[in-house]
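Following up on my earlier thread - several people asked me to post the actual chain instead of describing it. Fair enough. Here it is, all 80 residues.
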Amino acid sequence: MVKPFKASSYIVGTRWKHLPKCPYCGYEGEFKIHKTWHFRFYEVERLECSRCHGVFNHYHGTSPTGKKTEFVIRVKPRAQ
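Reply from S.P.:
Thanks for posting it. Predicted structure:
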């Protein structure tokens, strides 16, 4: 089951610098969380944009040297 969440309300308890932004359409708002996991020192969420339905992974975390990193990777092209 896919759980919708509002990024602005979820952001309060996290270390994100900015709200996640859809790499396909630039939307910053509600996304559906498909899956979450850890990869090395990153926390990863697979998100789906509620506007264009593009799927992407949002990586965020702090490296062992203390540098905070955040980026997105496109997973699947948006539905046409």
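The beta strands are 3-6, 30-39, 42-49, 55-62, 68-76. That should answer part of your original question.
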